[in-house]
Every structure is written in C-alpha cells, then in structure tokens.
Write a structure and sequence with these properties.
about 700 residues, alpha+beta
C-alpha cells in the first residue's frame, strides 16, 4: 500500500487490439491457401489422370465408354478390338477397332455404323462449345446404314427410340483419310434400296480436293439400277456447308441425271434439283415410280425436282416422246396407302402414231410396218385391227391419279382433230376419262369413258357424243369435196362391254350407235355410185357435172349392238331423188362387215340398176360389191326380153318406176329405232329392217339415251 493507505497499482499492462486491415487479411490468406491447395490438387489430379491415361492409353475406359455413349444415343455401342482414349498431349486421342453402333430393332441391318478401324484426334475445347472438330480422321472399312421405317415416321440416324432426337451431324475435319467407305440407304415406302461405295478420300488443312466420287447399285420398285456420281464441293460438305451433287443412274434402259446444291449432306428437302431422263420407253421410267402408262416411243425429258416431305414435284418439265412434244408438271406423293399422281400436261402437236399405245398397239411397229402388222403383234387374228393386248389392269390398282392433259393438234392424214382435252381420274382401279373432249372437223366430240378394273374382267363404258360436224371437213381425206358440200353429221356411240383388252370389251359390247345427217348438200361421185342410178350417173358424166351436189333431206345410220354384233337399226337416207336403205351389220368380235345398201328412186328413171350395193370384208380390208346377184338377175331378165322381143326391150329390166316412199324426217333426226320410222304419209316403214341380227340375241332393246 502507498503512504495514504490506497492499494498499489498492478504492474501488468493490457495489449492493444490489432488494426482492422490485419483482421481482414487473415481470412483471405486462408481462402487463398484453400484455392491454391485445390488448384494444386486439381492439377495434380489432372496430371495424374493424364499420366495414367497416357501410360495406359485409356484402354480401361472401354466399357465405360460403351455404356456412356449407349446411354446418350439410346443405342448399344461395342468395340470389338483395341480401344484407346487419352490426351496426346492436349488433343483427345481416340482409337477403336471393330467399332459398331447398333440400329433400332425395326431395321433390316444390325448396325447403323461399323468400322474396322477408326483413329482420330479431337479438339477438346470444341466439345465444350458444341462445335465438334477433328484434327484428323483415319477411317478404314467403314459402313453406314440409313433406313426409314415402313410408316416413314422414324429413321435409323435419328438417335432416341421415339424418333424425336437430333439427327447425327458431321464434325469439322481438318485432315482425313477414308478407305473403303460404304453407304446403304433403304426407304420401304418408295421401295428403294441403294448401296454406294466411295472412292478413297484424303484431305489436308480441312480441304479434301476437287471431288469425292462414288459408285453404286440398288433396286427401286423391283427395278435394278446402277449409278455413279460425285460431291463437287466436299470441303464445304465436310464443314457442314453447301454441297454440289451430280448423280448419273441407269435403270431399265433409262438414263437419269440429277444435279443441284444441297444445304448439307443428304438434305434434299425443298431443294430444287435439275433432272433429265431419256430412254426407249417412258412407261419403263414411270414404272420405276409405280406408275403404269401405255408404252411410248423414244423419249427425252428434263424437269426441276423439289421434294417436300412425301411429295416429289417435277416442275418446268419439257421434252418429247416419239414425234410429239410435252410440257407441264406432275407430283408423285408417297404419303398414302398408294402412290398418288397429280399432273397438268400440254402437247402442242401430238402425232397419231404416239396415240397407238393407248389402245394397245406398239407405236414402233405402227410407224415402221403399219397398223395391220401392229394389230397382229398385239394379238389380233389375221385381217383384224382391234388389238388383244392387255391394258395392264394389274398395275392400275397400285396408284391413284388426277391428270389434266391438253393437246392443241393431232397430226393425222385423214381425221382433223384439234383442241383435245381430257381429265383422267384413277381411284383404286376405277379409271375415268371424263370429260374427254376434242374438235373434229369443226365439230365437237364430248365423251366419257370408264374402265372398272375392280371387276375381272374389267367393265368398260364408252359414251361418245358428236355435235353437228361439217361432212366436208370430216370426210375430206376420203374423197368428199368441200366445195358445194353443206351437209353436217352428228351422232352418239354408247356401249358397255367386259374385257381387259379393247377387242374383248367391244366383242362383248351392248348398246347403240347412231349417226344423224340433217338437211344439206353433198358433193361426191361416190354417192351416185352407192345409189347405183346408172342413168343419172351416166347423164352427169357426159354432161361433166360429176360434182353437182346431192340434195339431202335427212339421214340416219344407226346400229343396235348386242354381244358385240351391230345390226342396222335403221339405215335410212332420204335425198331429193332417192331413198337409200340398208340392212345387215358388222361384228366387233370377228371384225367382219356384211352390209347391203339399196337406193329406190322417187322419180322415173330409164336406166337404173336399183340393186343392193354390198359392203363386206373386214375392218382392215373392206370390199365394195357393186355387181350383185340382183343386178345380174336383172341383166339376165333383160337379155331374155331382148331375145324374145327386141333388143330395146332389154332396157325394161332396168326401168325404175320411181315409187320410193319419202321418209318422215322427224324420227330420222331424233335418232329413233327402225320400229319408229315412218313414211311422209305417216305409215310405218317396212323396208328398214327390225334392228335384229341372226348373230345376236333377240332381246328387248333398252331405250337409247340420245342427244337428238
């Protein structure tokens, strides 16, 4: 204690608190030490991993690699031989022998990808940024199998089982060597299978060279083909850029070329491709696509092909078949249960020989040796014209179609046809050509034709309706003079038959044919010959008036058809001087003709044969019998009178008293049957037959749906 008794002070002093900056530095140092230690550990770990991988070449990662990749792409992945995966030194070194990537279960091949050996180095940073880059790629004996499923809803190169994953994309490759590379493509909907072999590919500095060439073979709709082609911009292709493709194919004697620029490898969706085709028969070309048409002569076509999903559109098409031209566009759609074709086609000039296949003739035979030879080659019997060639009904249920076709002019020596148009509708074997219109000699023919291939044999309906047509233009190629001829003709053919060929469908036909001739004038000597009024004919011959018009009041040439046999019903032509009637008929089955025409004068004629003129033979070789037994009988009677009485009496056998009964033109112009025909006095006619034939069944006739 001090002198005043107070406790003495302690000698211990309290330490002063540290400065604030010293307090803050301590945690930072601890964090730094942690980071440093972690970094050192990480680097050490990486170095250890790198060292382990480098020493072991990463071979122990084989099974983890298979499991990981299989999980990512939802496909089994196997490496059958050596496997290496390590850093060398910074790039990722990858080597696999016997590498396979499986296909989905529904495919026909077990592997999407298989390679005997794949050796590559991968830039690791490119994997982090999603842009895969290979420093080099050595690929040996590799094969890639690409397939669509039957429903065309999934393919083998889209990873994930539901088909909704991302398709495989090519990486960027700096240097490559590809030896013995093969590609297989299969599309069941198109019935297409292609196997391609690529030439050895070598590249440096991400440049492959001028072209990558390939060859191959395959089958499309049972038709084998071979092809060759090239990728003309392989460097752009390898860099996932645009690709110029050229392809040449040979299939069923058809040569096809295709060229264009694709946005990427194997991507043709919406890309215009230039296509050319030429061959001996366009039916073979379209048959590859499953489309059945009659055969054609040599053809050459070019068009622009654009694919959009299941539709393949061939636009801006131009070309020729035989001696005819064609332009337009058509689309082939494989998206339904059957192939569907939609087309708009136009021909400026259609050669009649190129029409021959549509009724069963070989156009090359028609052009070189004539219709008769072509008919025999098509199965027709001697002297017949109607072909017996099947119209290929078996293929008309494999596709559907809507086709609009127009022809400006049909080149023909005898029949002037222009402005032809037809709409073709095919639905599961039911083929309609309706409307089918054309102008013939300034008259319009409108028709509807139906082929029902759902029946066996096919049921065929023909319905042709001809409006008023000038006779001079219609028969100008057969000797009818245009000057002085004012007569017209109109008519209808309505038949139904069963058969797979034109001949069979007509040989079984039933229906009616009628041609009506209204009032007019006709200039031709053949009329006088058919009337066989020798007095009038000789008088006109000596007076040099052979082209004096024959005045027609009305006329009807009609036939009722049963079982392919057409019987006159009636043949009745009323002129100013005569009434011409006819009997008989013809057969579509045998193509024989047996017709007899008789002209009776309305006025007295001193020297007139007045005996029937017969038309016989076949469609291909008709014959005209002017000197008939009736005429010979009259000549014999005249000779007898000359012997018994005096020579001038022989003329009495050829005198025509002129008692022919004029026809009532009303029933004639209405196209009525023989039973409805009347004389001008209103009495039934008994000189025009009954419309029956001994070769046809005598069944009640149905009312003819005429247009008269």
């Amino acid at each position: 204690m001090n002198h005043d008794g107070a406790a003495p002070e302690t000698a211990t002093t309290r330490p002063e608190p540290p400065a604030p900056d010293v307090v803050a530095e301590r945690p930072r140092r601890r964090i730094w030490r942690v980071v440093r230690n972690v970094a050192i550990g990480f680097v050490t770990l990486i170095a250890a991993i790198w060292l382990v991988l480098f020493i072991t070449k990463g071979r122990f990662l084989k099974e983890p690699f298979e499991r990981t990749v299989a999980h990512l792409i939802d496909r089994p992945v196997k490496v059958g031989g050596d496997f290496q995966l390590y850093f060398a030194p910074l790039d990722i070194k990858f080597l696999a022998e016997g590498l396979t990537v499986a296909n989905p279960d529904w495919t026909t091949r077990p592997h999407l990808f298989a390679a005997k050996r794949i050796d590559t180095r991968i830039a690791p940073w490119s994997l982090l940024f999603g842009r895969r880059r290979l420093r080099w790629l050595d690929l040996t004996d590799a094969s890639l199998d690409l397939e669509w499923n039957a429903a065309h809803t999934a393919n083998s190169w889209t990873f994930t089982s539901d088909g909704k994953g991302k398709p495989f994309e090519l990486p960027v490759i700096d240097r490559a060597s590809l030896v013995s590379t093969a590609l297989r493509y299969r599309d069941p909907r198109m019935d297409l299978l292609a196997d391609l072999d690529f030439s050895t590919i070598r590249s440096r500095d991400a440049r492959i060279g001028e072209a990558v060439r390939f060859t191959g073979k395959g089958r499309v709709r049972r038709t084998p083909f071979t092809l060759n082609g090239a990728l003309l911009t392989p460097n752009d292709t390898a860099a996932r850029g645009r690709n110029r493709l050229v392809l040449n194919a040979l299939a069923a004697r058809n040569r096809i070329t295709m060229s264009g620029t694709l946005p990427s490898l194997a991507d043709i969706e919406g890309v215009p491709l230039a296509v050319t085709a030429r061959g001996q028969n366009a039916a073979e070309l379209l048959g590859i696509l499953g489309i059945v048409i009659p055969q054609t002569r040599d053809y050459r076509l070019k068009a622009t092909l654009v694919k959009r999903e299941a539709a393949y559109r061939f636009g801006d098409m131009t070309g020729r078949f035989g001696d005819s031209d064609i332009v337009g566009a058509f689309t082939v759609n494989n998206g339904g249960p059957r192939v569907h074709v939609d087309a708009d086609l136009t021909t400026r000039s259609l050669d009649i020989i190129d029409v021959a296949p549509f009724i069963g003739y070989n156009p090359d035979l028609v052009a070189s040796r004539g219709v008769a030879v072509a008919a025999r080659a098509a199965g027709a019997a001697p002297a017949r014209l109607l072909p017996d060639t099947s119209l290929r009904a078996e293929g008309l249920r494999a596709f559907d179609a809507n086709v609009r076709y127009r022809v400006a002019r049909l080149r023909s020596d005898s029949v002037p046809v222009t402005d032809l148009s037809v709409t073709v509708a095919l639905d599961d074997g039911l083929l309609d050509l309706s409307p089918f219109k054309f102008t013939m000699a300034r008259g319009t023919v409108a028709s509807d034709i139906r082929f029902d291939w759902r029946r066996r044999p096919a049921r065929v309906d023909y319905d042709f309706r001809m409006a008023d047509t000038p006779i001079a233009q219609l028969l100008g190629g057969f000797g009818v003079a245009e000057a002085g001829t004012t007569g017209t003709i109109r008519g209808r053919l309505q038949l139904q038959g069963d058969g797979d060929t034109l001949h069979d469908s007509l040989a079984t036909a039933r229906g009616r044919i009628a041609l009506v001739i209204p009032q007019g004038k006709l200039t031709t000597r053949n009329v006088q010959l058919s009337e066989l009024d020798l007095g009038t004919f000789i008088q006109k011959m000596f007076e040099a008036r052979l082209k004096e018009p024959v005045a027609l009041n009305c006329g009807l040439v009609a036939f009722t058809v049963r079982g392919g046999v057409a019987a006159a019903d009636p043949i009745l032509i009323d002129t100013r001087k005569n009434v011409i009637t006819g009997r008989g008929g013809f057969s579509f089955a045998t193509e024989q003709i047996d017709l007899a025409f008789r002209a009776d004068a309305k006025k007295f004629s001193l020297f007139s044969g007045q005996s029937p003129v017969g038309i016989g033979g076949y469609f291909s070789e008709p014959s005209l019998a002017v000197v008939t037994p009736q005429l010979l009988g009259r000549a014999g009677a005249g000779l007898g009178l000359a012997v018994v009485a005096a020579p001038p009496a022989a003329l009495l056998a050829f005198v025509d008293p002129g008692d022919a009964k004029g026809a009532a033109c009303g029933p004639v112009l209405a196209g009525a049957t023989a039973k409805a025909q009347r004389t001008r006095d209103g009495k039934p006619r008994d000189d025009v037959g009954t419309g029956a034939s001994g070769k046809a069944e005598d069944k009640p006739r149905k009312k003819f749906l005429g247009i008269f």
